[in-house]
Amino acid sequence: MSQFSLSFDASLLVRDARGRYRPATASQILAAARLVVDQTLQRNEEFTSPAVVKNYLCAKLAGYEHEVFAVLFLDNRHRLIEYIELFRGTIDGASVYPREVVKEALARNAAAVIVSHNHPSGSPEPSAADRALTANLRQALALVEVRLLDHIVVGGNDTVAFSEHGLL
Fold it and tell me: What is the pLDDT of residues 111-161, one digit of tens each?
């Protein structure tokens, strides 16, 4: 009696344009993970704790090789209206315009926002520029009665929340 054994690569597979299955790239896996996060936390999802927000933002922003500045637009009960990646930068910075953040918050009738960006270096420690931007955003949003609840910096799988470190 002969033995038959199967061996296979445990990689994730994706279908190419010709219908053949190929190993997924890291960027394809991250893109699929972002879609899963989007489907899991939909509009009206409540962000009731900093841990939930951090986990959500890690899933959305970790793995980018460039800086991305994103905003969670929330209603007055801190339910998600929309997540938007507003600005894209380079490996060590992104230009962020408070005017555009305010404009987007007003367009969505947001009562509050949580802003976030990633550090491709892997270190979530806020820079002096991050602190200055947060102060400018808080001031600009306050003029139109939109609360800035937090600024979360994502570095790899680690985060720093301004609210937890007395920086807000």
Answer: 999 999 999 999 999 999 999 999 999 999 999 999 999 999 999 889 999
For the chain, helix, strand, coil in percent to 5 are 35, 25, 40
Token pair of 50, please? 């900093």
Q: Cα separation of 59 and 36, whole Å?
A: 9
Are the C-beta atoms of 34 and 83 separated by less than 8 Å? no
Q: What is the pTM of this model?
A: 0.75
DSSP letter at 27? Answer: H
Assign residue 107 a region (left: φ > 0; alpha: ψ between -120 and 50; beta: otherwise): alpha
Alpha carbon distance 124, 62 (integer Å): 11
* Residue 153 in tokens: 């910096």
Q: Give kind and range of the element (H or E) at residue 22.
A: strand 21-23
Question: Is 103 in contact with 139 (CB distance < 8 Å)?
Answer: no
